[in-house]
Structure formats: C-alpha cells, structure tokens
Specification:
The complex is a heterodimer. Chain A has helices at 42-50, 92-102, 107-120, 136-150, 166-183, 194-200, 218-223, 228-233; strands spanning 4-13, 16-26, 31-35, 57-62, 65-66, 77-80, 154-158, 186-191, 203-208, 211-216, 240-246, 253-256, 261-263, 276-280, 285-300, 305-311, 314-320, 331-336, 341-345. By secondary structure, chain A is α+β, with helices and mostly antiparallel strands. Chain A has two domains: 4-232, Rossmann fold; 237-345, OB fold (Dihydrolipoamide Acetyltransferase, E2P). In chain A, the strands form four sheets. Chain A has a six-stranded mixed beta sheet with strand order 6-7-8-3-9-10, sandwiched between helices. A five-stranded antiparallel beta sheet of chain A has the order 13-12-11-14-19. In chain A, β15 (285-300) and β16 (305-311) form a beta hairpin. In chain A, α2 crosses α3, α2 runs parallel beside α4 (136-150) and α3 (107-120) packs across α4. Chain B is 70% helix and 0% strand. The longest helix of chain B has 33 residues, at 82-114. Classes of the chains: A alpha+beta, B mainly alpha. Chain A binds chain B through residues 50-52, 71-75, 77-79, 81, 83, 85, 87-91, 98-99, 102-103, 130-134, 146, 150, and chain B through 204, 206-207, 209-217, 220, 224-225, 228-229, 309-317. Bound molecules: adenosine-5'-diphosphate (ADP) and magnesium ion (MG). Magnesium ion binds at residues 42-43, 159 of chain A. Chain A: It comes from Antarcticirhabdus aurantiaca.
C-alpha cells in the first residue's frame, strides 16, 4: 500500500489540453473517487497513474517514488476496466492467476492466493468457466478478483459499475466498499455518477474540463460546495438556484429577479449590489411559510414526496416528508431554512 | 434461429393448397429451391471436370485418341516413376518452406503495421502490391531478377565484392528450388499479412493494457495474449495459404518450366506437362488426382484446427 500524489499534472493529446494542472494528495489506504461529467478527463488521469498514458507535465508519485518514467508493469498497480478486459481464452482461475503465472509462481502458491480471493467474491464455483460463460456481474467480480490476487500498492477502478443494471450496481457498490474496508488498499475510483461517489468515497475529487473544482469528504462537498459547479453536480435532486441580489434596503434578505423575497441567515457574506445566486437544496424547503409556490408535478415515493414547483418564474424542486394532497396547478406556501442557504457570486460562480 | 416459420394454423390447409403454396411455406423446400442455381453451376463447372479428370486417370487417353479403361495401370506406372516421386518431394518441400516463411514474415509485417507508425495507411496499401500484380507479370519480373547473366542480385553482390561470378539462380537444382520459393513467398505475404492484421485489430487494446499492468513484458503479451487470440484467424489463413501454394502452377511454369532436371517440378506442373505437351492425358490426370489425398489431409487438418475452441463457446456478449 502507498500514498499517491499528483503534482501539477498535465496532459495534452497533440495541441488539445485535456488535464490542465491537477494537484491531489491521496493518503495511504484512502478510498478516493474522481467524479465529473463525461469527457472531463477522469479516465485520462487514472490511465496516467496506471502508466497507460504518457504524462505531459508535472509529476505523479506512488509512495515516495516518482513514476513518470516507470512502465506500467513495474508500478505495482491493479486496475479494473470498464469493459472488465478479461482474457477471453483463459478460465476464471487463469484470469485471476495471470500475474502470478507471469512471475513463475508455483502451483501451490497460485492456489493459496486465488482461492481466498475467489471465496471473498463468491467465485469459487465459477473457477473453471470462461468469461463468455459469465453474466455481467460475475465478470465484474472476476475483474476485481484479478486485482485482489495481485495485492498491489494501489487499486484503480474506471467506471466499473456502469455496465451493470441498476439493482446490481447498488449491491456492488456496497460490496466494493466492504472490500476496501477489509483490504485497506489505497483505491482510486473513477465515476460520472455522483451517488456512487457520495456513497463510497472517503474523499471525493470533483473535476470539470481537466481541472479540479473541489476536493473533500462527501458531506463536506454537500454542505459547503466551493462553487456553482460542485453545488449543482453533488446531490440529487440537484440544488435549486435562484438569481437575484441582496435587498437594497437592509441587505439582510435576498430578492429574486422577479421580486420574490427570500430569507438569509444573519452574518451572510453576500455583497450588496452584485448579481448573486441563491442556492437551496430541495430538503431545505419546508411546508408552510411566507413564500408562495405553484405546484407543477408531484412525485410521491411513499417515504417522501418530491414536488416540482414554481417560485416566481423559477422552477424549484422540493422534497417533503409530509404527504401532500394538492393537485398540479394549485398553490402552496413554503419557507426556506436560512441556515441551509448557499450564496454564490453569479459572475465567478464562487461561494461567498 | 430468429426466423422460424410458425406452424400453419390448421394442418389440413397445407394439403389443400396448391403445390407452390405448400412450397412457399416449407423451409426445406424453399431452401432447396434457392440452392438450385448454385448447385447446377457447381455441378457443371466443378463436379463435371473433377469427375472427368478422375475418370481420365483410369484410362489410357492420349490427345487425339479416346482411351479405354485400364484400371490402376496409370497409378502403378507412377508408383515406379522416379520423376513423379521427385515432384511429390518438391511439392511438399515447396509448400512447407514457403508456408512457414509466409506465416513468419506475414505475422511480423502485420504486427509492425498494427503499431502506430507514420504513413500507416500508405504502407498498408503498398504491401498489397505483390498480391494485385498478375502472377505472370511478377513471375516475369523474377525471371529477370534471377537471370543467369543480368540478375540484379548478382550484380549488386559483385559490385559489393562479395562474389566473383554471377549466381546461377535457376540453373542449379537447389538454387532453383530456393529461388522459386522466394518468389512464391514474396507473392503470398500480402495475403497473410493483411488477413492477420485484420485479426490483430479485433483484439481489444484493453487486454494488452490489462496484461501490461499484470506485469507482462511485450514478449509475454505476444505469447500469451496476441497469439492465442489470433489462432482462429491463423488457422483459416494458413489453410488457404497451404492450398494455394500446394497447387501453384503459374510461377513455376514461367520461371523454370519444372527444370533444371525436374528439380522444381511440382505435381501440378508435372501433371500439365505429361498431359498437354506430352499428350498423355490419362497419366496427367492421374498425377492431378494423386494431389487430392494431400489436399484432403490439409483440409482435415484445418477442419480440426478451425473448430471453435472451448473459450469461444457458450454465453453471449
Ligand atoms: N487518445 C486520445 N486522443 C485524443 N483525445 C483523447 C484521447 N483520449 C481521451 N481524449 C480526450 O480527452 C478528454 C477526456 O477524456 P476522458 O479522460 O476519457 O474523459 P472521462 O473519462 O472523464 O469521460 C475527452 O475530451 C477525450 O475526447
Ligand atoms: Mg472515462
């Protein structure tokens, strides 16, 4: 096991810059998730760590060792690919034992390593099968088994769950997390799915367009997003964002573009006279209060009700614990918890 | 099968409908009907000449004189014929050496062309040239290259001071054998290289990446990933290559006509020489028929080589 450092890492394909200076420190044994929209450079960053892409600038360190010029086979890293990349001409057992076979390990040594790994993953009865004869979920496990057998310094996962159906994805999520708690190997995991990131990570790295937007623990990102991008990316349903300014009279309230007045906590850091964005998560909006809202759609899930409504001209999503008996088109009154409000500068997108 | 005919709603309907109506409902009937043109074509142009050739082998037909059935006499004669056995040896030697060389060089070229080299498409097109040039034309070119006085190879070697007299490429038995093999290899490489290149491109890059992360050197990746995944294609390509080489005729006929002293006579060229210029149609046909067991053996070999391997079976993607 080892720590991992990215120091001002850059990557361009020809003239096209894809990674534009990334700095991350990953502690030994940490489970870090790189998350961001498709095409933001997550896979590229991961592949640079694995040694599958050349590093155009900066330095990547595994432990104390700079690995910029170390070929993949010498980096002691195991990777689970999105398409699993199982060797189709080898049985499950041979797939898992491949790295050991290459090193010339003895049969008994291979067995003592493959067997426990297969047991952990529930693959013991499949060891003689070929990849073609397995289901998607089983293939996914074999790919993980192949990584576990290696007992590497770092595990890499590149969207390992995106080829699975929704239900399997949820259970594999738990399983991977559980596995990490058991093995405590440093893990770097790439996904575009913020729910995966929130549920599994010790630390999340939010990326956009080759840059890091914010690094932090899941709830840290949720409670204190650094900017509008992170605020909108983390959390589902997404944070409501209303544009407007501070009330010019006293500066203690927020007035939307169409004149709706919204509450702010005392001591907020908004600057009078500039365009601001008022961010409120769906669960910060409660039933009953001074703000009128027109109901557009109600989606009861049993446990809670998600309501899409309109405050002034802005669409707003709320989640209520109460059961509602209103119909679309009707008006309800809501309030917003001022302590849970986020203020952003509309021009720079930065949190105030 | 996704397209399976639904059973007719009532069993009685089929017997009542007209013949054509019943035919159009029947999978087998329709299948036979559609196969008919191809079958007739094959029968006329393939089976008939083949049958005729086999029959001729049992007769003493000469050009201009219809023969009579003489049983196995032709074969008994060939069995004692030293030239025939020499041609068998030549054919096997020619096929074995040329196929091995074509395979090794073709695979090597395919791997090079599969790398990211500059002007990749250009090289891929250029490599097809020997294949698209008509055989006779390239054979004529080789004829000049191997000329006993004007050979460019001899000239270059003499200029370099490596030899003092021109090499007698086609005049010496072993020189001639190796020379025709070289010409055949030159002509056959593109087919092997391009087919194997197509095969290489079906191997996902992620397998190589996974193997590299698992600690494989580039030789180990070739040996344990590329080669096993390429075997199905190799089996097809080499079967065809062996069949083409075994039945080769044009190159030999232009370059050496089987000489010197029959050293490069293949079974195909000997069969032609005995049958047409020599006039002994029956004997020529018998030599041609004698090729069949060898070809069948090659086909059987590839049949087992081509069987789906265990890892290719079961499941879907
Ligand atoms: N081999 C390549 N050549 C050129 N551009 C590439 C290559 N690989 C990735 N890119 C570009 O780099 C960007 C980031 O890709 P990637 O890291 O795969 O994104 P992500 O995994 O976050 O979806 C994309 O714009 C993609 O088009
Ligand atoms: Mg990706």
């Amino acid at each position: 096991m080892a720590s991992v450092d990215f120091v001002d890492v850059r990557k361009s394909f020809g003239a096209h810059a894809v990674i534009k200076g990334v700095n991350v420190h990953i502690d030994d044994g940490e489970f870090v998730i790189l998350v961001g929209p498709s095409g933001c450079g997550k896979s590229t960053l991961l592949r640079m760590l694995a040694g599958l892409e050349h590093i155009s600038g900066g330095e990547i360190r595994i432990g104390e060792r700079a690995v910029n010029d170390v070929p993949p086979k010498d980096r002691d890293i195991a990777m689970v690919f999105q398409n699993y990349a199982l060797y189709p001409h080898m049985s499950v057992a041979d797939n898992m034992a491949f790295s050991l076979t290459l090193k010339g390990a003895s049969k008994s040594e291979i067995e003592t390593k493959v067997k426990p790994a297969a047991e952990i993953l529930g693959l013991s009865h499949l060891l003689d099968r070929y990849p073609r004869q397995l289901s998607g979920g089983q293939r996914q496990r074999v790919a993980m088994g192949r990584a576990i057998v290696r007992d590497p310094q770092v595990f890499l996962f590149d969207e390992p769950l995106s080829n699975l159906d929704a239900k399997l994805r949820v259970s594999m999520r738990t399983e991977i997390k559980n596995l990490h708690q058991r093995l405590t190997t440093t893990t770097v995991y790439v996904t575009h799915d913020q729910i995966e990131a929130m549920t599994m990570a010790d630390k999340i790295v939010v990326m956009q367009d080759g840059r890091i937007e914010q690094i932090g623990a899941p709830l840290e990102l949720y409670d204190r997003p650094n900017n509008l991008f992170v605020a909108g990316f983390i959390g589902s349903p997404a944070m409501n964002m209303l544009h407007g300014r501070l009330d010019p009279a006293d500066g203690q309230r927020f007035v939307t573009g169409d004149g709706i007045v919204l509450p702010l906590a005392p001591g907020h850091r908004g600057t009078p006279g500039t365009d601001l964005v008022y961010g409120a998560r769906p669960e910060a909006i409660h039933l009953g209060g001074p703000i009128p809202m027109e109901v557009i759609v109600i989606e009861p899930t049993g446990f809670e009700s998600q309501v899409l409504g309109r405050i002034g001209a802005s669409n707003v999503t709320c989640v209520f614990r109460e059961r509602l008996s209103v119909k679309p088109g009707e008006r309800i009154d809501v309030s917003i918890d001022p302590a849970a409000v986020h203020l952003f500068d509309a021009g720079t997108g930065v949190r105030l | 099968m996704s397209v399976s005919a639904a059973p007719p709603p009532r069993a009685t309907r089929a017997s009542r409908g007209s013949f054509f109506e019943r035919l159009s409902q029947s999978r087998n009937g329709l299948g036979l009907l559609f196969m008919l043109p191809a079958a007739v074509f094959l029968l006329c142009f393939l089976t008939y000449p083949l049958g005729l050739g086999a029959w001729l082998g049992f007769t003493d037909t000469m050009i201009g004189r219809p023969g009579v059935f003489i049983g196995l006499e032709n074969y008994e004669y060939l069995f004692r014929d030293r030239v025939f056995w020499l041609s068998v040896f030549n054919t096997l030697f020619y096929t074995a050496i040329a196929s091995i060389l074509k395979f090794a060089l073709g695979l090597w070229l395919a791997i090079i062309l599969n790398e990211n080299l500059p002007f990749k498409t250009f090289f891929r097109a250029v490599i097809l040239l020997p294949w698209v040039v008509p055989t006779v034309l390239s054979a004529l070119a080789f004829w000049w290259i191997y000329d006993s006085q004007f050979s460019i190879i001899s000239w270059v070697l003499m200029q370099a001071g490596l030899i003092s007299a021109p090499i007698n490429f086609l005049g010496d038995p072993w020189n001639a054998r190796l020379s025709v093999i070289a010409a055949n290899v030159w002509r056959g490489i593109p087919f092997v290289a391009i087919s194997l290149l197509a095969g290489l491109q079906t191997i996902p890059a992620s397998l190589h990446e996974a193997a590299a992360l698992d600690g494989a050197t580039s030789w180990q990746r070739f040996r344990r990933i590329t080669l096993p995944l390429l075997t199905p294609i190799i089996a097809v390509v080499m079967t065809f290559s062996v069949l083409f080489t075994f039945t080769d005729f044009q190159l030999i006929y232009v370059l050496t006509k089987g000489g010197p002293v029959n050293a490069t006579h293949l079974m195909a060229t000997l069969s032609f020489q005995r049958g047409i210029p020599g006039g002994a149609l029956g004997e020529g046909a018998a030599i041609a028929v004698a090729m069949v067991p060898f070809l069948l053996a090659a086909i059987l070999f590839s049949f087992f080589g081509l069987q789906r391997r265990k890892w290719q079976q079961g499941g879907s993607d």
